[in-house]
Protein backbone atom coordinates (compact mmCIF):
# COMPACT_ATOMS: atom_id res chain seq x y z
CA UNK A 1 0.00 0.00 0.00
CA UNK A 2 1.13 3.49 -0.85
CA UNK A 3 2.11 5.95 1.82
CA UNK A 4 -0.31 8.91 2.02
CA UNK A 5 0.83 10.94 4.99
CA UNK A 6 4.13 10.94 6.84
CA UNK A 7 4.98 13.03 9.87
CA UNK A 8 8.59 13.32 10.87
CA UNK A 9 9.75 14.57 14.27
CA UNK A 10 6.94 17.06 14.81
CA UNK A 11 7.50 19.41 17.74
CA UNK A 12 5.19 21.98 19.25
CA UNK A 13 5.40 23.96 22.49
CA UNK A 14 2.95 26.30 24.15
CA UNK A 15 5.07 28.53 26.36
CA UNK A 16 7.07 26.17 28.53
CA UNK A 17 4.75 23.22 27.88
CA UNK A 18 6.09 20.83 25.29
CA UNK A 19 2.82 19.50 23.94
CA UNK A 20 4.45 17.57 21.13
CA UNK A 21 8.00 16.32 21.67
CA UNK A 22 9.04 14.22 18.74
CA UNK A 23 6.11 12.70 16.96
CA UNK A 24 6.54 10.64 13.80
CA UNK A 25 3.99 8.47 12.08
CA UNK A 26 3.00 7.15 8.68
CA UNK A 27 -0.46 6.63 7.24
CA UNK A 28 -1.03 4.38 4.22
CA UNK A 29 -3.76 4.33 1.61
CA UNK A 30 -6.98 2.64 2.73
CA UNK A 31 -5.85 2.23 6.30
CA UNK A 32 -7.60 3.04 9.56
CA UNK A 33 -5.15 4.06 12.26
CA UNK A 34 -6.34 4.69 15.80
CA UNK A 35 -4.56 7.38 17.78
CA UNK A 36 -4.88 6.66 21.47
CA UNK A 37 -3.72 8.36 24.62
CA UNK A 38 -4.92 9.80 27.88
CA UNK A 39 -6.06 13.41 28.24
CA UNK A 40 -3.09 15.69 27.68
CA UNK A 41 -1.09 13.07 25.80
CA UNK A 42 -0.78 15.34 22.77
CA UNK A 43 -3.39 13.80 20.45
CA UNK A 44 -5.26 17.05 19.95
CA UNK A 45 -2.08 19.00 19.37
CA UNK A 46 -0.97 16.47 16.77
CA UNK A 47 -4.20 16.55 14.78
CA UNK A 48 -4.49 20.32 15.05
CA UNK A 49 -0.99 20.59 13.60
CA UNK A 50 -1.94 18.32 10.69
CA UNK A 51 -5.22 20.08 10.03
CA UNK A 52 -3.63 23.53 9.98
CA UNK A 53 -5.11 25.02 13.14
CA UNK A 54 -1.65 26.18 14.22
CA UNK A 55 1.84 25.82 12.74
CA UNK A 56 4.37 23.32 14.10
CA UNK A 57 7.64 24.52 15.62
CA UNK A 58 9.81 21.90 14.00
CA UNK A 59 9.52 18.76 11.92
CA UNK A 60 8.34 17.78 8.44
CA UNK A 61 5.03 16.74 6.94
CA UNK A 62 4.89 14.73 3.70
CA UNK A 63 1.73 14.14 1.68
CA UNK A 64 2.19 11.34 -0.87
CA UNK A 65 5.93 11.65 -0.49
CA UNK A 66 5.99 15.37 -1.12
CA UNK A 67 7.13 17.71 1.60
CA UNK A 68 4.44 20.27 2.46
CA UNK A 69 3.89 23.09 4.89
CA UNK A 70 0.41 23.52 6.35
CA UNK A 71 -0.27 27.04 7.59
CA UNK A 72 -4.07 27.14 7.59
CA UNK A 73 -7.10 24.87 7.65
CA UNK A 74 -7.68 25.89 4.05
CA UNK A 75 -4.24 24.60 3.01
CA UNK A 76 -4.84 21.32 4.82
CA UNK A 77 -8.15 20.89 2.99
CA UNK A 78 -6.51 21.70 -0.33
CA UNK A 79 -3.92 18.98 0.36
CA UNK A 80 -6.76 16.49 0.90
CA UNK A 81 -6.72 16.43 4.68
CA UNK A 82 -10.23 16.72 6.13
CA UNK A 83 -10.74 16.93 9.87
CA UNK A 84 -14.01 16.23 11.65
CA UNK A 85 -13.91 17.75 15.10
CA UNK A 86 -16.11 16.52 17.87
CA UNK A 87 -19.41 18.43 17.97
CA UNK A 88 -17.95 21.43 16.17
CA UNK A 89 -18.01 20.51 12.53
CA UNK A 90 -21.38 21.89 11.47
CA UNK A 91 -23.24 25.19 11.75
CA UNK A 92 -26.63 24.28 13.28
CA UNK A 93 -28.50 27.28 11.83
CA UNK A 94 -27.59 26.41 8.24
CA UNK A 95 -29.25 23.81 6.03
CA UNK A 96 -27.60 20.47 5.34
CA UNK A 97 -26.84 21.54 1.78
CA UNK A 98 -25.22 24.80 2.91
CA UNK A 99 -23.16 22.96 5.50
CA UNK A 100 -21.96 20.37 3.02
CA UNK A 101 -20.49 23.10 0.83
CA UNK A 102 -19.46 25.58 3.53
CA UNK A 103 -16.21 27.22 2.45
CA UNK A 104 -16.49 25.62 -1.01
CA UNK A 105 -19.79 27.02 -2.18
CA UNK A 106 -20.67 26.51 -5.85
CA UNK A 107 -21.27 30.02 -7.26
CA UNK A 108 -22.24 31.81 -10.43
CA UNK A 109 -20.35 34.92 -11.57
CA UNK A 110 -17.20 33.87 -9.79
CA UNK A 111 -15.51 37.24 -10.44
CA UNK A 112 -17.76 38.81 -7.78
CA UNK A 113 -15.65 37.11 -5.12
CA UNK A 114 -17.40 36.81 -1.76
CA UNK A 115 -20.38 38.68 -3.24
CA UNK A 116 -20.90 36.00 -5.90
CA UNK A 117 -24.40 34.47 -5.85
CA UNK A 118 -24.64 30.88 -4.67
CA UNK A 119 -25.64 28.38 -7.33
CA UNK A 120 -28.60 27.23 -5.26
CA UNK A 121 -29.85 24.62 -7.74
CA UNK A 122 -26.44 23.01 -7.98
CA UNK A 123 -26.03 23.22 -4.21
CA UNK A 124 -29.29 21.38 -3.57
CA UNK A 125 -28.80 18.77 -6.31
CA UNK A 126 -25.28 17.95 -5.21
CA UNK A 127 -26.38 17.72 -1.60
CA UNK A 128 -29.30 15.41 -2.45
CA UNK A 129 -27.08 13.21 -4.58
CA UNK A 130 -24.56 12.99 -1.77
CA UNK A 131 -27.18 12.16 0.84
CA UNK A 132 -28.50 9.44 -1.44
CA UNK A 133 -25.08 7.99 -2.04
CA UNK A 134 -24.34 7.70 1.65
CA UNK A 135 -27.72 6.08 2.21
CA UNK A 136 -29.46 8.67 4.34
CA UNK A 137 -31.63 10.25 1.68
CA UNK A 138 -34.85 8.68 2.88
CA UNK A 139 -34.77 10.48 6.17
CA UNK A 140 -33.03 13.74 5.39
CA UNK A 141 -33.94 16.68 3.21
CA UNK A 142 -31.05 18.75 1.88
CA UNK A 143 -32.85 21.94 2.93
CA UNK A 144 -33.43 20.82 6.52
CA UNK A 145 -31.60 22.80 9.18
CA UNK A 146 -28.80 20.93 10.90
CA UNK A 147 -30.24 22.01 14.28
CA UNK A 148 -33.15 19.61 13.63
CA UNK A 149 -30.83 16.58 13.29
CA UNK A 150 -29.70 14.08 15.90
CA UNK A 151 -26.08 13.79 16.96
CA UNK A 152 -25.55 10.69 14.83
CA UNK A 153 -27.10 12.31 11.78
CA UNK A 154 -24.85 15.33 12.24
CA UNK A 155 -21.79 13.14 12.48
CA UNK A 156 -22.89 11.30 9.31
CA UNK A 157 -23.25 14.61 7.49
CA UNK A 158 -19.79 15.74 8.60
CA UNK A 159 -18.25 12.45 7.51
CA UNK A 160 -20.02 12.44 4.16
CA UNK A 161 -18.77 15.94 3.58
CA UNK A 162 -15.20 14.78 4.10
CA UNK A 163 -15.70 11.80 1.78
CA UNK A 164 -17.34 13.91 -0.88
CA UNK A 165 -14.28 16.05 -1.37
CA UNK A 166 -12.33 12.86 -1.99
CA UNK A 167 -10.05 13.56 0.91
CA UNK A 168 -6.92 11.45 1.05
CA UNK A 169 -6.77 11.65 4.81
CA UNK A 170 -9.80 11.92 7.06
CA UNK A 171 -9.17 12.75 10.69
CA UNK A 172 -11.98 11.87 13.08
CA UNK A 173 -11.73 13.49 16.51
CA UNK A 174 -13.85 11.52 19.00
CA UNK A 175 -16.53 10.81 16.40
CA UNK A 176 -18.67 8.70 18.71
CA UNK A 177 -18.74 11.09 21.66
CA UNK A 178 -22.26 11.75 22.96
CA UNK A 179 -23.81 9.30 20.49
CA UNK A 180 -26.32 6.54 21.21
CA UNK A 181 -25.48 2.89 20.63
CA UNK A 182 -27.15 2.68 17.24
CA UNK A 183 -25.70 5.97 16.07
CA UNK A 184 -22.26 4.85 17.18
CA UNK A 185 -22.53 1.73 15.05
CA UNK A 186 -23.61 3.89 12.13
CA UNK A 187 -20.48 5.99 12.46
CA UNK A 188 -18.23 2.93 12.79
CA UNK A 189 -19.83 1.48 9.66
CA UNK A 190 -18.99 4.74 7.94
CA UNK A 191 -15.36 4.39 8.96
CA UNK A 192 -15.22 0.94 7.35
CA UNK A 193 -16.83 2.32 4.19
CA UNK A 194 -14.24 5.06 4.05
CA UNK A 195 -11.48 2.50 4.17
CA UNK A 196 -13.12 0.48 1.39
CA UNK A 197 -13.37 3.64 -0.70
CA UNK A 198 -9.61 4.06 -0.36
CA UNK A 199 -9.50 6.92 2.16
CA UNK A 200 -6.99 6.82 4.99
CA UNK A 201 -8.50 7.44 8.39
CA UNK A 202 -6.87 8.71 11.55
CA UNK A 203 -9.27 7.95 14.38
CA UNK A 204 -8.92 9.66 17.75
CA UNK A 205 -11.00 8.04 20.44
CA UNK A 206 -11.20 7.15 24.10
CA UNK A 207 -13.18 4.02 23.41
CA UNK A 208 -10.74 1.13 22.94
CA UNK A 209 -13.52 -1.28 21.98
CA UNK A 210 -14.28 0.80 18.92
CA UNK A 211 -10.62 0.68 18.01
CA UNK A 212 -10.62 -3.10 17.94
CA UNK A 213 -13.73 -3.07 15.82
CA UNK A 214 -12.53 -0.82 13.00
CA UNK A 215 -8.82 -0.02 13.17
CA UNK A 216 -5.93 -1.71 11.38
CA UNK A 217 -3.18 -0.18 13.47
CA UNK A 218 -2.89 1.47 16.86
CA UNK A 219 -0.60 4.35 17.78
CA UNK A 220 -0.33 5.28 21.43
CA UNK A 221 0.78 8.70 22.67
CA UNK A 222 1.91 9.65 26.14
CA UNK A 223 3.23 13.05 27.34
CA UNK A 224 3.66 14.40 23.84
CA UNK A 225 5.47 11.37 22.46
CA UNK A 226 4.49 8.35 20.43
CA UNK A 227 5.29 5.44 22.73
CA UNK A 228 3.96 2.46 20.82
CA UNK A 229 2.75 1.36 17.41
CA UNK A 230 1.09 -2.03 16.90
CA UNK A 231 -1.18 -3.75 14.44
CA UNK A 232 -4.56 -4.59 15.95
CA UNK A 233 -4.13 -8.27 15.09
CA UNK A 234 -0.97 -8.48 17.21
CA UNK A 235 -2.24 -6.92 20.40
CA UNK A 236 -5.05 -7.06 22.94
CA UNK A 237 -7.09 -4.72 25.07
CA UNK A 238 -5.06 -5.06 28.24
CA UNK A 239 -1.76 -4.38 26.49
CA UNK A 240 -3.17 -1.26 24.86
CA UNK A 241 -4.54 0.01 28.16
CA UNK A 242 -1.15 -0.52 29.78
CA UNK A 243 0.48 1.44 27.00
CA UNK A 244 -1.95 4.33 27.41
CA UNK A 245 -1.57 4.65 31.17
CA UNK A 246 2.12 3.76 31.24
CA UNK A 247 1.55 1.18 33.96
CA UNK A 248 2.10 -2.49 33.31
CA UNK A 249 -1.48 -3.61 33.91
CA UNK A 250 -0.92 -7.24 32.92
CA UNK A 251 1.82 -7.55 35.54
CA UNK A 252 -0.47 -5.96 38.09
CA UNK A 253 -3.21 -8.40 37.20
CA UNK A 254 -0.88 -11.35 37.57
CA UNK A 255 0.27 -10.13 40.95
CA UNK A 256 -3.32 -9.67 42.06
CA UNK A 257 -4.03 -13.27 41.17
CA UNK B 1 -46.26 30.80 9.54
CA UNK B 2 -43.59 29.89 12.04
CA UNK B 3 -40.93 32.16 10.61
CA UNK B 4 -40.13 35.01 12.97
CA UNK B 5 -40.29 37.72 10.32
CA UNK B 6 -43.81 36.62 9.41
CA UNK B 7 -45.10 36.86 12.97
CA UNK B 8 -43.46 40.28 13.25
CA UNK B 9 -45.16 41.30 10.04
CA UNK B 10 -48.56 40.24 11.41
CA UNK B 11 -47.97 42.30 14.56
CA UNK B 12 -46.95 45.26 12.43
CA UNK B 13 -50.18 45.06 10.43
CA UNK B 14 -52.19 44.81 13.66
CA UNK B 15 -50.42 47.87 15.07
CA UNK B 16 -51.01 49.87 11.89
CA UNK B 17 -54.72 48.97 11.91
CA UNK B 18 -55.06 49.87 15.59
CA UNK B 19 -53.37 53.25 15.11
CA UNK B 20 -55.34 53.94 11.92
CA UNK B 21 -58.63 53.24 13.67
CA UNK B 22 -57.66 55.19 16.79
CA UNK B 23 -56.60 58.27 14.86
CA UNK B 24 -57.75 59.22 11.39
CA UNK B 25 -54.60 61.23 10.73
CA UNK B 26 -52.29 58.24 11.16
CA UNK B 27 -52.56 57.21 7.50
CA UNK B 28 -52.75 60.76 6.15
CA UNK B 29 -50.20 61.62 3.44
CA UNK B 30 -48.54 64.11 5.74
CA UNK B 31 -48.06 61.62 8.55
CA UNK B 32 -46.88 58.83 6.25
CA UNK B 33 -44.42 61.25 4.64
CA UNK B 34 -43.25 62.19 8.08
CA UNK B 35 -42.64 58.57 9.11
CA UNK B 36 -40.86 57.82 5.83
CA UNK B 37 -38.51 60.74 6.45
CA UNK B 38 -37.34 59.31 9.76
CA UNK B 39 -37.45 55.60 8.87
CA UNK B 40 -34.30 55.40 6.74
CA UNK B 41 -32.05 57.04 9.31
CA UNK B 42 -32.33 54.27 11.90
CA UNK B 43 -33.23 51.66 9.27
CA UNK B 44 -29.93 52.02 7.41
CA UNK B 45 -27.97 51.41 10.63
CA UNK B 46 -30.22 48.44 11.41
CA UNK B 47 -29.21 46.77 8.13
CA UNK B 48 -25.55 46.76 9.14
CA UNK B 49 -26.44 45.71 12.66
CA UNK B 50 -28.42 42.74 11.33
CA UNK B 51 -25.43 41.40 9.42
CA UNK B 52 -23.17 41.97 12.42
CA UNK B 53 -25.58 40.27 14.84
CA UNK B 54 -25.96 37.34 12.46
CA UNK B 55 -22.19 36.91 12.61
CA UNK B 56 -22.46 36.86 16.42
CA UNK B 57 -21.28 40.39 17.32
CA UNK B 58 -22.93 43.73 17.94
CA UNK B 59 -21.97 47.38 17.93
CA UNK B 60 -22.98 49.85 20.64
CA UNK B 61 -21.01 52.73 19.11
CA UNK B 62 -23.38 53.35 16.16
CA UNK B 63 -25.32 56.14 17.85
CA UNK B 64 -22.11 57.97 18.70
CA UNK B 65 -20.76 57.54 15.16
CA UNK B 66 -24.10 58.87 13.90
CA UNK B 67 -23.32 62.02 15.90
CA UNK B 68 -19.59 62.32 15.26
CA UNK B 69 -19.43 61.85 11.47
CA UNK B 70 -21.54 64.90 10.51
CA UNK B 71 -19.90 67.01 13.22
CA UNK B 72 -16.45 66.29 11.78
CA UNK B 73 -17.60 66.86 8.19
CA UNK B 74 -19.28 70.17 9.02
CA UNK B 75 -16.38 71.38 11.13
CA UNK B 76 -14.00 70.72 8.25
CA UNK B 77 -16.25 72.62 5.85
CA UNK B 78 -17.24 75.52 8.08
CA UNK B 79 -14.10 76.11 10.13
CA UNK B 80 -11.32 74.75 7.96
CA UNK B 81 -12.83 75.70 4.61
CA UNK B 82 -12.41 72.23 3.18
CA UNK B 83 -14.42 71.29 0.09
CA UNK B 84 -17.59 69.37 1.04
CA UNK B 85 -16.62 66.37 -1.11
CA UNK B 86 -13.24 66.09 0.56
CA UNK B 87 -14.82 66.55 3.99
CA UNK B 88 -17.30 63.75 3.29
CA UNK B 89 -14.42 61.52 2.22
CA UNK B 90 -12.65 62.32 5.50
CA UNK B 91 -15.84 61.42 7.38
CA UNK B 92 -16.03 58.14 5.50
CA UNK B 93 -12.42 57.32 6.35
CA UNK B 94 -13.10 58.16 10.00
CA UNK B 95 -16.03 55.71 10.08
CA UNK B 96 -13.93 53.03 8.41
CA UNK B 97 -11.22 53.57 11.03
CA UNK B 98 -13.68 53.34 13.94
CA UNK B 99 -15.20 50.14 12.55
CA UNK B 100 -11.79 48.64 11.86
CA UNK B 101 -10.58 49.38 15.40
CA UNK B 102 -13.73 47.77 16.85
CA UNK B 103 -13.30 44.73 14.63
CA UNK B 104 -9.61 44.22 15.16
CA UNK B 105 -9.85 44.46 18.95
CA UNK B 106 -12.83 42.09 19.06
CA UNK B 107 -11.35 39.45 16.76
CA UNK B 108 -7.60 39.66 17.28
CA UNK B 109 -7.44 40.42 21.01
CA UNK B 110 -10.61 38.52 21.78
CA UNK B 111 -12.53 41.00 23.92
CA UNK B 112 -16.33 40.78 23.71
CA UNK B 113 -17.93 43.22 21.31
CA UNK B 114 -20.14 44.49 24.15
CA UNK B 115 -17.13 45.87 26.04
CA UNK B 116 -15.15 47.04 23.03
CA UNK B 117 -18.00 48.96 21.41
CA UNK B 118 -19.22 50.34 24.75
CA UNK B 119 -15.77 51.88 25.22
CA UNK B 120 -15.87 53.09 21.63
CA UNK B 121 -19.27 54.69 22.27
CA UNK B 122 -17.71 56.77 25.08
CA UNK B 123 -14.64 57.66 23.05
CA UNK B 124 -16.59 58.68 19.95
CA UNK B 125 -19.30 60.58 21.83
CA UNK B 126 -16.66 62.24 23.97
CA UNK B 127 -14.74 63.27 20.86
CA UNK B 128 -17.87 64.79 19.32
CA UNK B 129 -18.57 66.78 22.48
CA UNK B 130 -14.98 67.91 22.88
CA UNK B 131 -14.36 69.13 19.33
CA UNK B 132 -17.62 71.08 19.35
CA UNK B 133 -17.27 72.19 22.96
CA UNK B 134 -20.76 70.74 23.38
CA UNK B 135 -22.49 73.19 21.05
CA UNK B 136 -24.41 72.27 17.92
CA UNK B 137 -22.73 73.57 14.79
CA UNK B 138 -24.23 76.55 13.05
CA UNK B 139 -26.81 75.63 10.49
CA UNK B 140 -25.85 74.42 7.08
CA UNK B 141 -27.99 75.84 4.32
CA UNK B 142 -25.96 75.48 1.16
CA UNK B 143 -27.73 73.15 -1.23
CA UNK B 144 -25.53 71.18 -3.55
CA UNK B 145 -24.94 67.86 -5.16
CA UNK B 146 -24.26 65.96 -1.93
CA UNK B 147 -27.20 67.46 -0.05
CA UNK B 148 -29.52 66.49 -2.91
CA UNK B 149 -27.94 63.05 -3.07
CA UNK B 150 -28.45 62.33 0.63
CA UNK B 151 -31.37 64.48 1.73
CA UNK B 152 -33.12 65.82 -1.36
CA UNK B 153 -36.90 65.55 -1.41
CA UNK B 154 -39.53 64.94 -4.05
CA UNK B 155 -43.31 64.70 -4.23
CA UNK B 156 -45.45 61.79 -5.36
CA UNK B 157 -49.04 63.02 -5.33
CA UNK B 158 -49.71 64.30 -1.85
CA UNK B 159 -46.70 62.44 -0.43
CA UNK B 160 -43.35 64.07 0.11
CA UNK B 161 -40.41 61.69 0.21
CA UNK B 162 -36.69 62.15 0.82
CA UNK B 163 -33.97 60.56 -1.29
CA UNK B 164 -32.87 58.79 1.87
CA UNK B 165 -35.78 56.43 1.26
CA UNK B 166 -34.05 55.31 -1.98
CA UNK B 167 -30.85 54.76 -0.03
CA UNK B 168 -32.74 52.61 2.47
CA UNK B 169 -34.49 50.60 -0.27
CA UNK B 170 -31.28 50.11 -2.25
CA UNK B 171 -29.21 49.12 0.75
CA UNK B 172 -32.01 46.79 1.95
CA UNK B 173 -32.01 44.97 -1.38
CA UNK B 174 -28.24 44.71 -1.25
CA UNK B 175 -28.36 43.35 2.32
CA UNK B 176 -31.06 40.79 1.45
CA UNK B 177 -28.96 39.66 -1.49
CA UNK B 178 -25.77 39.38 0.55
CA UNK B 179 -27.32 37.51 3.46
CA UNK B 180 -29.54 35.10 1.55
CA UNK B 181 -28.02 34.57 -1.85
CA UNK B 182 -24.33 35.42 -1.76
CA UNK B 183 -21.42 33.27 -0.66
CA UNK B 184 -20.63 35.92 1.95
CA UNK B 185 -24.06 35.48 3.56
CA UNK B 186 -23.43 31.78 3.95
CA UNK B 187 -20.18 32.64 5.72
CA UNK B 188 -21.80 35.27 7.96
CA UNK B 189 -24.52 32.87 9.14
CA UNK B 190 -22.02 30.05 9.63
CA UNK B 191 -19.67 32.25 11.68
CA UNK B 192 -22.50 33.30 13.98
CA UNK B 193 -23.90 29.80 14.21
CA UNK B 194 -20.65 27.96 14.94
CA UNK B 195 -17.48 29.93 14.51
CA UNK B 196 -15.16 26.95 14.95
CA UNK B 197 -16.96 24.98 12.27
CA UNK B 198 -16.71 27.88 9.86
CA UNK B 199 -13.02 28.38 10.56
CA UNK B 200 -12.39 24.65 10.16
CA UNK B 201 -13.91 24.90 6.66
CA UNK B 202 -11.50 27.67 5.75
CA UNK B 203 -13.89 30.60 6.24
CA UNK B 204 -11.87 33.73 7.20
CA UNK B 205 -14.08 34.51 10.20
CA UNK B 206 -11.99 37.37 11.63
CA UNK B 207 -11.72 39.18 8.31
CA UNK B 208 -15.46 38.87 7.69
CA UNK B 209 -16.24 40.24 11.16
CA UNK B 210 -13.84 43.18 10.80
CA UNK B 211 -15.48 44.16 7.50
CA UNK B 212 -18.92 43.88 9.06
CA UNK B 213 -17.85 46.23 11.88
CA UNK B 214 -16.56 48.63 9.22
CA UNK B 215 -19.80 48.36 7.21
CA UNK B 216 -21.90 49.04 10.31
CA UNK B 217 -19.83 52.10 11.25
CA UNK B 218 -19.97 53.46 7.71
CA UNK B 219 -23.75 52.98 7.58
CA UNK B 220 -24.09 54.76 10.94
CA UNK B 221 -22.01 57.64 9.59
CA UNK B 222 -24.09 57.74 6.39
CA UNK B 223 -27.31 57.83 8.41
CA UNK B 224 -25.84 60.66 10.52
CA UNK B 225 -24.99 62.65 7.38
CA UNK B 226 -28.49 62.11 5.95
CA UNK B 227 -30.04 63.32 9.18
CA UNK B 228 -27.72 66.34 9.47
CA UNK B 229 -28.37 67.40 5.87
CA UNK B 230 -32.12 66.95 6.29
CA UNK B 231 -32.33 69.20 9.33
CA UNK B 232 -29.44 71.41 8.14
CA UNK B 233 -27.56 71.07 11.41
CA UNK B 234 -25.07 68.81 13.17
CA UNK B 235 -25.31 68.28 16.89
CA UNK B 236 -22.69 66.46 18.99
CA UNK B 237 -25.44 64.66 20.91
CA UNK B 238 -27.36 63.50 17.82
CA UNK B 239 -28.07 59.77 17.85
CA UNK B 240 -27.88 59.34 21.61
CA UNK B 241 -29.55 56.04 22.50
CA UNK B 242 -29.87 54.99 18.87
CA UNK B 243 -27.71 51.90 19.42
CA UNK B 244 -30.34 50.28 21.62
CA UNK B 245 -33.23 51.31 19.42
CA UNK B 246 -31.46 49.83 16.41
CA UNK B 247 -30.71 46.57 18.22
CA UNK B 248 -34.37 46.47 19.29
CA UNK B 249 -35.48 46.84 15.65
CA UNK B 250 -33.23 43.99 14.62
CA UNK B 251 -34.24 41.49 17.32
CA UNK B 252 -37.93 42.41 17.08
CA UNK B 253 -37.66 41.45 13.42
CA UNK B 254 -36.52 37.97 14.40
CA UNK B 255 -32.73 38.07 14.17
CA UNK B 256 -31.13 36.09 17.00
CA UNK B 257 -29.06 38.12 19.45
CA UNK B 258 -26.79 35.09 19.78
CA UNK B 259 -25.95 34.92 16.08
CA UNK B 260 -26.52 32.45 13.27
CA UNK B 261 -30.04 33.47 12.37
CA UNK B 262 -30.57 36.81 10.68
CA UNK B 263 -33.33 38.25 8.55
CA UNK B 264 -33.19 41.55 6.68
CA UNK B 265 -36.91 41.45 5.88
CA UNK B 266 -37.54 41.06 9.61
CA UNK B 267 -35.34 44.06 10.32
CA UNK B 268 -37.27 46.19 7.83
CA UNK B 269 -40.49 45.12 9.56
CA UNK B 270 -38.87 45.89 12.93
CA UNK B 271 -37.76 49.33 11.75
CA UNK B 272 -41.27 50.11 10.43
CA UNK B 273 -42.78 48.82 13.66
CA UNK B 274 -40.71 50.98 16.01
CA UNK B 275 -41.24 53.98 13.74
CA UNK B 276 -45.01 53.39 13.69
CA UNK B 277 -45.14 52.93 17.45
CA UNK B 278 -43.18 56.10 18.11
CA UNK B 279 -45.41 58.04 15.76
CA UNK B 280 -48.76 56.38 16.51
CA UNK B 281 -48.48 56.58 20.26
CA UNK B 282 -48.08 60.33 20.11
CA UNK B 283 -51.01 60.67 17.70
CA UNK B 284 -53.40 58.64 19.84
CA UNK B 285 -52.56 60.88 22.77
CA UNK B 286 -50.27 58.84 24.97
CA UNK B 287 -48.12 61.32 26.90
CA UNK B 288 -44.67 61.64 25.38
CA UNK B 289 -43.00 60.70 28.63
CA UNK B 290 -44.87 57.38 28.69
CA UNK B 291 -43.62 56.51 25.22
CA UNK B 292 -40.75 54.30 26.36
CA UNK B 293 -43.06 52.19 28.54
CA UNK B 294 -45.02 51.19 25.45
CA UNK B 295 -41.95 50.59 23.33
CA UNK B 296 -40.45 48.39 26.05
CA UNK B 297 -43.64 46.38 26.52
CA UNK B 298 -44.07 45.82 22.78
CA UNK B 299 -40.44 44.73 22.31
CA UNK B 300 -40.73 42.34 25.23
CA UNK B 301 -43.96 40.91 23.84
CA UNK B 302 -42.31 40.37 20.44
CA UNK B 303 -39.36 38.58 21.98
CA UNK B 304 -41.61 36.32 24.04
CA UNK B 305 -43.55 35.52 20.88
CA UNK B 306 -40.35 34.63 18.99
CA UNK B 307 -39.15 32.45 21.85
CA UNK B 308 -42.45 30.59 22.03
CA UNK B 309 -42.54 30.05 18.27
CA UNK B 310 -39.01 28.69 18.34
CA UNK B 311 -39.78 26.35 21.20
CA UNK B 312 -42.77 25.13 19.26
CA UNK B 313 -40.68 24.56 16.15
CA UNK B 314 -38.10 22.61 18.15
CA UNK B 315 -40.80 20.36 19.58
CA UNK B 316 -42.24 19.45 16.18
**H/I helix tally of chain A:** 9
Order of strands across the biggest sheet of chain A?
6-7-8-3-9-10
Count the beta strands of chain A.
Answer: 10
Judging from the principal axes of the Cα atoms, what is the shape of chain B?
Answer: globular
- Quaternary assembly: heterodimer
Order of helices and strands of chain B: HHHHHHEEHHHHHHH
The portion of residues assigned to helices of chain A is: 25-40%
**Major β-sheet profile of chain B:** 2 strands, antiparallel
Q: Residue-averaged pLDDT of chain A, rounded?
A: 84
Any idea of the CATH topology of the domain at 3-91 and 167-256 in chain A? Rossmann fold
Task: Please state the structural category of chain A.
Answer: alpha/beta
What is the CATH architecture annotation of the domain at 3-91 and 167-256 in chain A?
A: 3-Layer(aba) Sandwich
What is the rounded distance between the termini of chain A?
A: 43 Å
Provide the CATH top-level class of the domain at 3-91 and 167-256 in chain A: Alpha Beta
- The strand order across the widest sheet of chain B is 1-2
**Sheet with most strands of chain A:** 6 strands, mixed
Roughly how many Å is the radius of gyration of chain B?
20 Å
Pfam families (chain A): ABC_tran
Domain ABC transporter (chain A): 5-248
InterPro entries (chain A): AAA+_ATPase, ABC_carbohydrate_import_ATPase, ABC_transporter-like_ATP-bd, P-loop_NTPase
GO molecular function (chain A): ATP binding; ATP hydrolysis activity
Topology readout:
The complex is a heterodimer of chains A (257) and B (316).
Chain A: E1 3-14, E2 17-28, E3 32-36, H1 43-50, E4 58-63, E5 66-68, H2 73-78, E6 81-84, H3 96-100, H4 120-133, H5 151-164, E7 169-173, H6 181-196, E8 200-204, H7 208-214, E9 217-222, E10 225-231, H8 237-245, H9 249-256
Parallel strand pairs in A: 3-8, 3-9, 6-7, 7-8
Antiparallel strand pairs in A: 1-2, 1-4, 4-5, 9-10
Chain B: H1 4-22, H2 29-54, H3 62-78, H4 84-109, H5 113-132, H6 145-151, E1 153-156, E2 159-162, H7 164-181, H8 183-193, H9 195-200, H10 205-231, H11 242-252, H12 264-283, H13 291-315
Amino acid sequence: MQEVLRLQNLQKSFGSVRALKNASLTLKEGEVVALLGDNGAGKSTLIKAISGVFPIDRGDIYVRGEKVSIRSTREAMDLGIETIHQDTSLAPDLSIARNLFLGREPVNLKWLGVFAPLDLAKLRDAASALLKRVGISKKLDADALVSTLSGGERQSIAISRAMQFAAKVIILDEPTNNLGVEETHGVLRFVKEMREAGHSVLLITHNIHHVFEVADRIIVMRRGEIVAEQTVADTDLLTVESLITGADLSALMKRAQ
Amino acid sequence: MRSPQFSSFVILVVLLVVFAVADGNFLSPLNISNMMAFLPELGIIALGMTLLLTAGEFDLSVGAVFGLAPVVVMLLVQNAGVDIGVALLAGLLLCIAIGAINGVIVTKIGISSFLVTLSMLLIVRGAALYITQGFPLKSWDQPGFFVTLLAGSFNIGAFRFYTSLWWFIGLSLLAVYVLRYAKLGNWISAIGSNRNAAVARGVPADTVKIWLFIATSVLAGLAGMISAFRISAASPVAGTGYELEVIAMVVVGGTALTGGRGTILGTIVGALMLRAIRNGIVLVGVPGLAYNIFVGVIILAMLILHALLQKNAARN
